[in-house]
Design goal:
Strand 26 and strand 27 form a beta hairpin. This protein is of the alpha+beta class. It has seven helices and 31 strands. Strands 1, 2, 3, 4, 5, 9, 16 and 17 form an eight-stranded mixed sheet that branches.
């Protein structure tokens, strides 16, 4: 019985194999119709499209949620436990108060077209400009509240982008101090101030990131009324006047950021500073004072913005030296040829007498109007370069006009002497930006003639 069953099964398998072979041959010989081919192609394309669509959505929403996780506040990023130092240079913590100490510290923040260094974190984030902005005499009155410096700082505030959204008022110590016995009971509340002696010494003084190799004022004075300043070697001095001569030193503004601000980008290094506001707008006038602008292959910085246009100061000095009396003619007959005159707006400026008992900004009968001019005492970004003429004079009868000397200090020289020129121009309000963010490495590019219809970024 078993043998019969096995023989029968063998026969069935052989028969089945033959039938399958027959069916395969039939299938191989079958041809698809046009409609079937179209359907097959459409189906394949549909599957590929679904793969791309849902793949992109997965990628997109992953990065959205990933960015939310990274979207921490400035304070949270700075005060992460891994950032705290216990020796050498870095961020130190003392009972919830954080401060930077030493020379090699990554505490750079780029805000409103300017580079800052964070000083400390305590119910807000105080930071100081990396560069010295301008140069001024303190004033005859050594009281900070009534000084020309404080007046200038209050004007400076208006140049900062949306300062009411980013900044908060801080208390500034204007105490009379001794270097070896610092205490504070006299304060003033402002949006902008200066470094105190305590700030400078706490950071490490001469061996700290706050020593930028320039002369700059501090908030404090000694018992004799001499205001302390830091010199170009990083030492603290108090020679703010000698007899009737009052000296001019640089100004480094200090501001206080709100601590709950979010970070746009950056790691805090000089090459990759923390950025807290979005950069680059379609119209030149909508960008920050301090932003770098490339116009006709020349690099400038935004000096000021008003209803008539945007003033730009040259980032450097021209490769030409002139007597003071030759400057205006050269700029407005030769240098101006570099530009499209239709883009330019005339600038109103003044040639003021400046001395220790004058404010930094005077409006007198010596008002002039030109397409190209040079800086005045009190202008921002003055101290980035030196050796060039300013519009102000010490004594016009003697022909003594100011320059910014090699130490970035005001020096009255004879008008027949030859010095460098640093031009200022003004572009009309509707100038379009075609690319760029406004940093020095990626300046705002002004559209050239013929680019009127460029799509705004």
């Amino acid at each position: 019985m078993k043998d019969d069953i096995e023989i029968l099964d063998f026969d069935d398998d052989d028969s089945t194999k033959k039938k399958r072979k027959s069916k395969k041959k039939t299938k191989q010989k079958r041809k698809y119709g046009l409609g079937e081919k179209i359907f097959l192609i459409v189906s394949i394309l549909f599957i590929i499209g679904c793969f791309i669509f849902y793949g992109y959505r997965t990628y997109h929403y992953y990065h959205l949620t990933h960015d939310v996780v990274k979207n921490i506040t400035l304070k949270e990023k700075l005060t992460a436990l891994t950032n705290i130092a216990y020796q050498n240079d870095g961020l130190y913590e003392k009972s919830g108060y954080f401060y930077y100490k030493g020379e090699e510290v990554n505490n750079y923040v780029y805000y409103s077209g300017r580079l800052f260094r964070i000083i400390d974190i305590n119910k807000g984030i105080r930071m100081v400009e990396e560069n010295t902005e301008t140069n001024l005499v303190w004033s005859v009155n050594t009281n900070y509240n009534n000084s020309y410096v404080r007046t200038w700082l209050n004007d400076y505030l208006k140049s900062l982008k949306d300062y009411d959204l980013y900044l908060e008022k801080a208390e500034w110590c204007t105490e009379v101090v001794e270097l070896d016995n610092y205490s504070c009971s006299t304060i003033v509340s402002d949006y902008v101030g200066l470094l105190s002696i305590y700030d400078y010494l706490q950071a490490g003084g001469k061996s700290s990131y706050l020593n930028n190799g320039t002369y700059f004022w501090t908030l404090n004075k000694d018992k004799e009324g001499n205001v302390f300043y830091v010199n170009n070697e990083g030492s603290i001095n108090n020679i703010s006047k000698k007899d009737d001569n009052y000296f001019s030193y640089g100004i480094r503004p200090v501001i206080k950021l709100k601590e709950d601000l979010n970070i746009v980008s950056g790691e805090g290094t000089k090459e990759d500073p923390i950025i807290i506001d979005y950069l680059g707008n379609a119209l030149l006038k909508d960008n920050s004072v301090g932003s770098y602008v490339e116009y006709n292959d020349e690099l400038f910085r935004i000096l000021s913005i008003d209803d008539n246009g945007t003033s730009l100061i040259y980032d450097g000095t021209l490769e030409v030296e002139k007597k003071y009396s030759e400057i205006s003619k050269y700029l407005n007959s030769e240098y101006i040829k570099k530009f499209n005159k239709d883009d330019l707006v005339k600038i109103d400026y003044y040639t003021n007498e400046y001395s220790f008992n004058n404010k930094y900004k005077l409006a007198n009968d010596k008002k002039k109007s030109e397409y190209v001019t040079i800086p005045n005492i009190g202008d921002m970004f003055l101290n980035e370069y030196n050796g060039y003429w300013l519009n102000d004079y010490s004594d016009s009868k003697l022909g003594l006009y100011y320059i910014l000397d090699d130490n970035n200090m005001l020096f009255a020289d004879l008008s027949d002497s030859k010095h460098d020129i640093r031009p200022i121009i003004k572009l009309n309000s509707e100038i379009v930006i075609i690319e760029g963010t406004g940093t020095r490495d990626n300046p705002l590019i002004v559209s050239k003639e013929g680019d009127k219809d460029v799509e705004k970024n």
